[in-house]
Amino acid sequence: MTSSAFGGTVTAVAASLRQRKKAKARRDLERSALRLFAKKGYAATSVDEIAAAVELSPRTFFRYFSSKEDVVFASADEELEALVAALGAVPEGLSPYRTLEAAAVAFARELESRQDDMRVRFRLIKQNSTLRNKAREKAAEWAGTVSACLAAREGREEATQVDEQLALLVMSALWSALEAWGDNPEGDMVSDVLTALLESCRTALV
Fold first, then answer.
1. CA gap 179, 173 in Å, rounded
2. How many CA atoms lie within 13 A of 69 on its CB side?
3. At residue 132, what are phi and psi to the nearest 5 degrees?
4. Which backbone phi and psi does 27 adopt, to 5 degrees?
5. How far apart are CA 192 and CA 77, in angstroms?
6. Cβ distance 120 to 126 under 8 Å?
């Protein structure tokens, strides 16, 4: 191996280690925040406490999150990607509503593998008006992305009004199911709650 090739390998390894370190710090801060929010409450927990619990500084916290609110929604983009992937995995031949329904339920089942964190997150959202408003914004953003994906799946360049309304309906049902799930730790799994809610919506639409 030439010196230049060796140097390039060392640089790539160092960059990879830095990325892993950053990802770990972000993940540790998120978990610390959710633990403290669950224990003390959202309003009573400070950024200093969140950072100190994982031996990091408040300055480090603000490298990854602009506020406590951002921590609650830290995985929202990743979750949206998972939802879009679930939509893409739905077999062809279903109606648009059935397609969205199948994707949302499959996505909900994925979230169940992280149920402790998800329950804390949605309990917080239900209890705090600022977080509820942010959640509504996220639900609308998700609906916009999902309606565009649905249109593309159906061979249309742009989402129709029907695509948008169906996506908004299903995303609202999904977030309502998640809030209900978070509020009742001993209740049904979120996929079961969502399935029942979507069946009710389907019945009302017929």
1. 10
2. 11
3. -65, -40
4. -65, -40
5. 24
6. no
Enter the tokens of residue 9: 């390998």
What's the pTM? 0.80
Note the pLDDT of residue 168.
92
Residues of the chain with pLDDT > 90: what percent? 52
How does residue 105 score in pLDDT terms, banded at 50, 70 and 90? Answer: very high
- Give the C-alpha distances (Å, rounded to integers) separating 154 from 6, 28, 98, 148, 165: 50, 41, 13, 10, 16
Do 166 and 87 contact (CB within 8 A), yes or no? no
How many other β-carbons are positioned within 10 Å of the β-carbon of residue 7? 11
pLDDT digits (tens, 9 = 90+) for 130-151: 999 998 888 889 999 999 999 9
Separation between Cα atoms, residue 125 and residue 117, nearest integer Å: 12
Token match 């030439």: residue? 2
